[in-house]
Known about the structure:
Layout: E1 4-10, H1 11-14, E2 23-30, E3 34-38, H2 57-74, E4 82-89, H3 95-106, E5 112-117, E6 128-136
Helix pairs in contact: 2-3
Amino acid sequence: xxxxxxxKFNTRDTYPEQNLDNDLCQAVATRGGTTLWMRGxxxxxxxxxxxxxxxxxxxxxxxxxQNIRQLVEEAxxxxxxxxxxxxxxxxxxxxxxxxxxxxEYIKGVHxxxxxxxxxxxxxxxxxxxxxxxxVIPD
Length: 138
């Protein structure tokens, strides 16, 4: 079975401040329906990996969900094909704002969801990270 690697990158380029050398990608698509496994999306641009200039959990969540939507669309699907999201937040006080904002993107979709409060994410300015899985019908 062949997998399609969408938006390959190396952590040397995206995290130059860290001593990393991982060949990764933003998403992997498999066939049989298409299952799209997305890397945890953070409030940064997909094209240049620059973080958005905001410490607002609502603005950060909008960027995260826009990235998820863009990746699903690049794989040939739509947000209605999301089946699972895992939400990581660094402060439980942001939970409502994050989930409310995420809800704007998944209205009527009903994916399964897991939420975690974590001590920190990969960059100190990030307040939210969401990984998602989509299954796109043949």
